[in-house]
Every structure is written in C-alpha cells, then in structure tokens.
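OP here, attaching both records as promised.
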Amino acid sequence: MEQNKKMAFSPSADRNKEPILNVLNEYIQENKRLLEIGSGTGQHAIYLAQHNKTLQWVTSDVKANHLVIKSYLKENKLGNIHGPETLKIGVDDFPKGSFDYIFTANTLHIMSWKEAKTLFKLLGKRLRAGSLCFFYGPFNYQGKFTSPSNDEFDQLLKSKDSKSGIRNYEDILKAMQSSGFKMIKDHEMPANNRLLVFERLTHKK
C-alpha cells in the first residue's frame, strides 16, 4: 500500500494546493456543496476540504482512478468528502443533487476540445444561478503561450494525444458565455497557471 501511495502522489497537486486554497477562500461560503471534476489522486480534495470543514466536497473521476482516490480518502477520514463518483465527460451526467461550486484542476488540457465544450454545456444545464465554476491550469491568450515551459508542455501533451493541449482563454470565455456564465475573475497563479472563476447567470425564461 505504501508503494502504491508513492506512485500515486502528484507533486504538482502538492505544490499548487495552497495557492488554490487562497483563491477559493475568497469565494467559498459555509454549508455549500462542491463537485470536483477529475479528482486524480484526491490530494486537492483532502487539502482543500479540510480547510473548509462545512463544505461538502464530492470527488469524481473516471473509474480507473477510483482506487487511488479511495485510498487517500480512507487514510484521511474526513467526514465532508464524498465519492468518488464516476464521471467521464461525454458519457456520464453529474452526480445527483445540486452543487454550489464546480472545481477542476489541470483537466481542460487533457480532455479534447469537444469534451471541454460538452462539459461547459453540462455546467449550464445542471447549475443554478449564482453557482461558481473554478478552472485551474495553464491557458493561452490570443493563441500564444504565456511561457516557454507551457509551449513545451503543450508539445508533450500532443505527443501523447493529438486532441489534448493547452486551451485558449478566449475560446473558453466564449463557450462559457454561450452556456450562460459570466467571467468573475482571471487569477494569476504560480508556475504560469491561472484560476478562472465563472458565475452562472439567471436562466433565460
């Protein structure tokens, strides 16, 4: 088990957890419910949920990652973390119940752009007015990389899957606006990353 935990450990999740917490704490209110899309190892869930004890944090990911998430949740035994729920964008709907927040880190550049647009549409269908979405990761602006390291990372992603790659901020903004959201703030984060915050507008009648 110890060996499996070491293999499942995400150094990037460990590095960025505190900066992400600092931003989320600007928005998170007490007694709310959050769905994390693509929980990975579960490290973000553990760290962020233990600093927001009244927040009900629901983990989700593809089935293949459930065992790792379960091992982290079992070890930490936090009562306000739930799941993991099975969620593959384009295949599964969101878990039952309503959510006040959606959080996802380093997923938009892994999924295809078609899957990303499917996610944005699903957010528009499932979230109520006032709900917030948090997208963490690297993004391009006006089609340009913000750093040489992001350029190299994009090449690495495409070498593994031609449909993945760092997404353009303007494309995300347009797609989210089409799904009924407005941009609240684009936070600058360490290591050439960003944290985009969107709010669900009132549904059209």
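Record two, same layout:
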Amino acid sequence: MADDAALDALYQEIILDHNRRPRNFRELPNATCSADGKNPNCGDALTIWLQFDGDTVSDISFQGVGCAISKASASLMTLAIKGRTRTEAAAIFERVHNLVTGTAIDGDAAKELGQLRALGGVSKFPMRVKCASLAWHALKSAMDGSEPVVAVHTGAPAPA
C-alpha cells in the first residue's frame, strides 16, 4: 500500500511539473501537419504541430489552454513522440489510450511508457479521460490527415 501511495505521489508530481513547465510549448513554423483539439464541455483547446523527416517525427510542439491534466498530457506526449516513426507513434497512442481508459496493458508495454504512466490515474475519473486524451487524438488526426479539428465530448451536452 505504501508503494502505491508513493507511486501516486510521484505521478502527481510529474503531472504538476509538466503543467507548470510544459515542454515543447510553442508554435512550429513550417510544420508538416497540424490539428486542433477541442473539448467544448470543459474548455480545453490546443493545437499540435508535427514536422516529419521522411517517416520520422523530427519535431513536435503544442500550444493551447486547458487544465493541468490536458497540458501535462500534451507536454509528455511531445517528449514521447519526438524521434519516433509514424508506426511507433501510433502504437504509443494506442497504449496511452488504453492506459487512460483503464484497459489492461501488459507489463512490458506499460514499462515502455515511462513517465506517460502518470496519466493512468485519470482512468478512475471518467470526466478527466477526455482531458488526458485530447492532445493524443489531435496527434492521431494530424498524422492521419483526417480532421483539422478534433472535438472530444464528455457525453454531457455542450454549453450553449
């Protein structure tokens, strides 16, 4: 039990650190692709920019406004995705999505997530899952070229 409490405290500190000092929080001129992510129910909104060198993410950045979880998730994402291929980035997206939604992932895959494991605690709070996954859905959309704006909804009606 004490180990769980220590781990939760560590993960909370990672989230707070990335919220206070987000990494790669800037526009990326001449980006290869980008996408906006919006959660109209809570006000989180961000833009993800990616620069590719061939099939590899050579640079990634984001800007926007949102809660601590949303901003920390985007910051952690930029660190995890930079230098990865599209295929690797898509695999990380799937693992993180499973993590934040509470879907079991095997031990090796979980270990490979490193600091991203700090996002796992949101699975206990369904309304926060969208906060943690917003940047990731924007990343996927930017890489796929599918939608320039991704809107995630919490299931509640959008405010008028």
